[in-house]
Design goal:
By secondary structure, the chain is of the alpha/beta class. The protein contains 14 helices and eight strands. The strands form two sheets. A four-stranded parallel β-sheet has the order 2-1-3-4, with helices on both faces. Helix 2 packs across helix 14 and helix 8 crosses helix 10. The longest helix is centred in the middle third of the chain and has 20 residues. The radius of gyration is 19 Å and the shape is globular.
Length: 323
């Protein structure tokens, strides 16, 4: 169909050489002060910064709580989705660093005895390939249950992927195991906000004097978790958070790349998100958890948007916030 033809008016993201691997986050002891991951290039060399660089603008003031805790306070498994693992691995490395600094034993969710990474199956579902999506869901469920049964949490970064574990998995694999997984699968910000409320981590995990303009992914809005994202950002002292009142960014996966849907995609972004990003001051940090949202913002405004994990990571580093 003509709607599936890619348009040449938008560049495609690039696969990264420095992909996120299990070794990047597997069994990271909380006593380890994670070192920045050097090298590498951001998608298309434009969105975000290099994996080892701090992403917040300079001049933001001191950074608090740069050290690490010396005791394990919990166990989490990071769900390394395809988009972050292969296009923006610095986001996953930032999440590992944040969780490690706070005292969590971090592992990467993986299928035992398999070299193939886990996948939520979202791309199969979007193409109507339900059987293939169900097969991927079974792999994820089997890998997650040992930790879930111990009371651990599955933490993810990409909204459309992680929230599949709370929605479509329950439909494709109805049963007690899928329900337990759904109850213990959280976005990074949800997990941190919950842990802070319970008193297991400090109410202030870092400091940065600046402003964040936050765009919510459609799945985050649909699941009603925007408040938790704001609460997680409020763990950074001195940070002002403004949320863009917007609908879908317009990218919507492959929709923004269709030759027949590109114009509609950009028109959706122009309703509120893209004008807000252009209007934001140069030192305002634009935050968006969705991979496609970040690329829509870049393609429509030329500005880089960051995953919240990187903002939190930079605010926790003791060596200052340098671009």
């Amino acid at each position: 169909p003509s709607a599936t033809r890619n348009t040449s008016r938008r560049p495609l993201p690039r696969w990264r050489r420095d992909v996120f691997r299990v070794a990047d986050g597997s069994v990271v002891p909380p006593t380890l002060n994670p070192s920045p991951q050097g090298g590498g290039e951001s998608p298309r060399g434009k969105v975000g910064t290099s994996p080892g660089a701090n992403s917040l603008p300079p001049g933001g003031g001191g950074i608090g709580r740069g050290g690490t805790t010396t005791s394990i306070i919990g166990e989490v498994a990071l769900f390394a989705d395809t988009f972050n693992a292969y296009f923006e691995p610095e986001n996953l490395r930032a999440a590992v660093e944040v969780l490690t600094r706070l005292g969590y034993h971090v592992s990467v969710l993986a299928a035992p005895g398999e070299s193939r990474p886990l996948c939520c199956g979202r791309t199969f579902l979007s193409a109507g390939l339900v059987d293939q999506a169900r097969a991927e869901a079974r792999r994820v469920l089997a890998a997650a249950m040992p930790l879930v049964e111990k009371g651990g949490f599955i933490v993810g970064l990409e909204p459309s992927c992680l929230l599949s574990l709370r929605d479509e998995f329950r439909s494709m694999l109805p049963g007690a195991d899928a329900e337990r997984l759904a109850a213990q699968a959280l976005m990074l910000e949800e997990f941190l906000a919950r842990e802070a409320k319970a008193g297991r981590i400090p109410q202030a995990i870092g400091r940065y004097e600046g402003k964040v303009l936050l765009h919510g992914h459609c799945h985050q809005k649909a699941f009603g978790i925007m408040a938790e994202i704001q609460n997680a950002l409020r763990l950074v002292q001195g940070l002002s958070v403004e949320t863009v009142e917007s609908s879908c960014c317009g990218m919507a996966g492959a929709f923004g790349y269709g030759a027949d849907t590109y114009e509609a995609s950009m028109a959706m972004g122009e309703l509120s998100l893209l004008p807000a990003a252009r209007k934001a001051a140069a030192d305002t940090v634009i935050a968006a958890d969705g991979f496609s949202c970040r690329h829509q913002i870049h393609d429509g405004t030329g500005r880089a948007a960051l995953h919240v994990a990187r903002i939190l990571r930079d605010a926790m580093r003791s060596d200052g916030a340098k671009r």
